């Protein structure tokens, strides 16, 4: 039975009381509140209408019986109008439910979903189901449409912003229809994209855009939007809500990496030892190489799907397809923050966006990462005003100097404010435009934290805390004081080189007594409390226990290292094994333990990144190896280089090479013994606490014909020292007989190679600006046994740190092409002939 609207109205008007009028629904176009649909499942449509009588609303349902329309149901309505009248299969595919939106306010309606039962008409919608706009549609889920409708409710928040919820009737109750979000929310995304273009300075539109993109599965875009919202000085709905959404987005990106949710598989960096070094590439979550290892370094992909890589000594940025979005032309590139990264070249620091566009008008001596739409920078201060050699200011996201360089020091912005130093004994609190909000006449004022700032009255005095107005809230009584976070701050009370850390609340009372060598915030309401391994040598390190914010200690002091908590898990190592802790501070069930010291991170649902004993690998939740770096490098048969590990003590670790395949096993044994010696494999006490750490490793840096060149590196770090001492030795081997070559072996016996090479190096120091760092008058020539290495066309001589240059210069290296010294090279000698 097909009925037009005029016919429906004619029938309805014959059955409503005298004086009653059918309600008009205004949107999407004005039309009378009448609707015909089968509500009983008998194949015949019933007529539903809403009319008004004496300022009251009534819902009337008429049924066609034996040639006549009779009243099937009559119920009193709500509010003063109707915004929705339709029918659709909500509870069953066999029949329709009547859906009515009762208007109770200018932008609010109460949803009613009626079902015909043996007892009559029953509203199955909750009493508090209010909305501003509703859409009734069978939205496809992962298996397509199921024949029943979902109800998308747009619930007004502020301005033109709406919170969108999608519900369905399932197993006799209303439940969120999260499985159809990806199909529906692209429509919501488009709605908020228009609003953010029209009102780019309204934070709540950015929040709802991020939320919609998150529900639509557009995680990189959602992350960009929520981070945009976080840059506004006034958070909405709150900074906590924004951070929670950001965390959910990042968690979803991790959880979906490498699955069907991504068109392009998420990738993870891997290294492969080869005959020409250890290049880096990327694998997928199943351990398959997706981007071949041809890079000198490969960092992890960031949430925006970009990764910093090194190629030919220069840093660039690639996407998940391996395409360069930033060409490798920089010395280094920081991680992206708020869609901006700081790239460094010979000119200095520059700000780039995710497309590689340089945004700054010039290079700076320094630019910090972007925080809340502001990046701190400094210029040299030629006039030495305000007692500082540098002047600090802030750049905006476009690279403009939004706050000119004028401060003696500065901090990142937090919640729209930053602490800066005006001059000696004067600090200030400024807003994002540089306006001064408060002035503090103190020797030191630290960054913001929960409205309090650490300060010193005098430069050698104790630390206390002031509020943002400059009022002293906690009197100076600490030897060091850190920023407040979640209402607590870590402080130190020790008067000597030893540490005595505790945690105070915002009243200055200790919630964790000052009794620890170290305290670290781990996030997620946890601390790591550290007791000194050796009380008389606290700089050696600590053993940690996990504690709650109130100081309740959850574990023994057994961990040598603990990383921050992330989604309820934290990586920890006891020196012998590395594993993940749950929030109880104990090894998390369902995750593996790995022998060695290092860290672990869950990077995909069944993929764990492991960096233990200076080696990267990936395992699944059961501990099965998905990928690990190779330990054998094949050379031309029968030769190979084999990696061996020596770890006699938790503080001493060496990876050293052994060469196999030499015809003479005795010579092979002598060679490998020498390689162990050069690699610093020597007796070390097993259980004794060393007062230093040592790590050693190697690389194959040159291999041609019968010549194999191994670079053996080491780093000795005394406990408590400002820095350690690196070492670098080259083992240059003839694979035929195992001979290790010295510098003299390259030259004719009667040549004065020392004099010739000394002159060349001296000329380079004198004439090449790159060697301007060499100490004046320290170079007096080379020694006969100066360290060296070779490449296919050149000899390279190098000096150890401090020999002729400062520590920061590393190993000053001088390249001499063979063509320049051919007259003294012994081209008939075994060294030269081994690779020619």
Automatic annotation (TrEMBL):
It comes from the Bacteria. InterPro entries: DUF3298, PdaC/RsiV-like_sf, TPR-like_helical_dom_sf, WG_beta_rep. Residues 744-819 form the DUF3298 domain. Pfam families: DUF3298, WG_beta_rep. This is WG containing repeat-containing protein.
């Amino acid at each position: 039975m097909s009925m037009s609207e005029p016919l429906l109205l004619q029938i309805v008007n014959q059955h409503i009381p005298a004086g009653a009028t059918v309600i008009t629904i205004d949107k999407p176009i004005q039309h009378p509140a009448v609707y015909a649909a089968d509500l009983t499942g008998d194949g015949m449509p019933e007529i539903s209408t809403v009319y008004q009588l004496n300022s009251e609303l009534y819902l009337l349902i008429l049924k066609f019986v034996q040639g006549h329309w009779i009243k099937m149901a009559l119920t009193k309505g709500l509010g003063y109008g109707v915004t929705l009248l339709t029918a659709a299969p909500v509870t069953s595919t066999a029949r329709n439910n009547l859906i009515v939106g009762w208007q109770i306010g200018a932008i609010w309606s109460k949803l009613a979903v009626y079902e015909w039962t043996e007892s009559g008409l029953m509203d199955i919608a909750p009493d508090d189901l209010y909305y501003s706009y509703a859409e009734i549609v069978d939205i496809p889920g992962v298996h397509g449409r199921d024949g029943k409708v979902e109800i998308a409710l747009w619930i007004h928040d502020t301005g033109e912003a709406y919170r969108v919820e999608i519900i369905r009737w399932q197993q006799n109750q209303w439940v969120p229809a999260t499985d159809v979000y990806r199909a529906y929310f692209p429509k919501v995304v488009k709605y908020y994209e228009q609003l953010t273009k029209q009102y780019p300075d309204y934070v709540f539109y950015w929040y709802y855009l991020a939320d919609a993109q998150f529900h639509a599965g557009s995680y990189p875009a959602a992350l960009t939007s929520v981070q945009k919202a976080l840059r506004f000085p006034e958070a909405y709905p709150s900074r906590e809500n924004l951070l929670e959404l950001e965390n959910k987005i990042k968690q979803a990106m991790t959880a979906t990496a490498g699955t069907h949710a991504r068109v392009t598989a998420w990738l993870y960096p891997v290294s492969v030892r080869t005959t020409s070094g250890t290049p880096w590439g990327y694998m997928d979550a199943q351990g398959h190489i997706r981007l071949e290892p041809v890079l000198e370094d490969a960092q992890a992909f960031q949430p925006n799907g970009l990764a910093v890589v090194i190629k030919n000594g220069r840093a660039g940025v690639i996407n998940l397809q391996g395409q360069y979005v930033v060409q490798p032309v920089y010395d280094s590139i920081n991680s992206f923050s708020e869609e901006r990264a700081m790239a460094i070249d010979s000119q200095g620091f520059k700000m780039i966006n995710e497309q590689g566009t340089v945004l700054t008008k010039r290079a700076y001596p320094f630019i910090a990462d972007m925080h809340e739409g502001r990046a701190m920078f400094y210029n040299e201060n030629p006039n030495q005003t305000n007692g500082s050699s540098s002047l600090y200011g802030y750049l905006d996201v476009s690279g403009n100097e939004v706050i000119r360089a004028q401060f003696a020091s500065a901090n990142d912005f937090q919640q729209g404010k930053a602490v800066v130093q005006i001059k000696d004994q004067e600090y200030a609190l400024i807003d994002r435009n540089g306006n001064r909000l408060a002035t503090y006449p103190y020797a030191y004022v630290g960054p913001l934290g929960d409205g309090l700032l650490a300060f010193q009255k005098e430069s050698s005095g104790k630390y206390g805390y002031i509020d943002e107005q400059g009022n002293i809230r906690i009197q100076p009584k600490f030897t060091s004081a850190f920023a407040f976070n979640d209402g607590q701050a870590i402080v130190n009370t020790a008067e000597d080189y030893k540490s005595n850390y505790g945690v105070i609340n915002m009243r200055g009372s200790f919630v964790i007594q000052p009794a620890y060598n170290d305290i670290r915030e781990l996030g997620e309401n946890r601390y790591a409390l550290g007791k000194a391994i050796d009380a008389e040598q606290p700089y050696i390190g600590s053993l940690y226990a996990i504690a709650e914010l109130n100081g309740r200690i959850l574990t023994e002091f057994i961990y040598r290292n603990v990383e921050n908590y992330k989604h309820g898990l934290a990586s920890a190592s006891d020196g012998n094994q590395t594993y993940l802790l749950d929030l109880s501070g104990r090894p998390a069930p369902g995750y593996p333990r790995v022998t060695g010291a290092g860290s672990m991170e869950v990077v995909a649902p069944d993929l764990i990144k492991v960096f233990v004993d200076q080696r990267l690998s990936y395992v699944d939740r059961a501990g099965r190896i998905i990928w690990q770096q190779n330990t054998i490098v094949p050379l031309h048969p029968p030769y190979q280089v084999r990696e061996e590990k020596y770890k006699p003590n938790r503080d001493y670790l060496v990876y050293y090479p052994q060469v196999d395949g030499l015809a003479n096993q005795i010579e092979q044994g002598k060679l490998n013994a020498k390689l162990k010696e050069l690699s610093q494999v020597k007796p070390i006490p097993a259980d004794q606490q060393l007062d230093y750490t040592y790590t050693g490793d190697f690389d194959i840096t040159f291999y041609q014909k019968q010549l194999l060149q191994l670079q053996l590196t080491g780093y000795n770090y005394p406990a408590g020292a400002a820095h350690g001492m690196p070492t670098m030795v080259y083992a240059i081997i003839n694979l035929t007989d195992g001979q290790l070559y010295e510098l003299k072996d390259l030259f004719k016996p009667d040549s004065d190679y020392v004099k010739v090479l000394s002159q060349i190096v001296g000329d380079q120091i004198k004439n090449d600006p790159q060697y301007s760092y060499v100490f004046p008058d320290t170079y007096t020539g080379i020694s006969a046994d100066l360290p060296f290495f070779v490449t296919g066309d050149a000899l390279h001589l190098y000096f150890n740190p401090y020999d002729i240059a400062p520590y920061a210069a590393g190993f000053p290296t001088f390249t001499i092409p063979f063509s320049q010294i051919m007259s003294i090279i012994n081209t008939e000698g075994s060294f030269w002939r081994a690779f020619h």
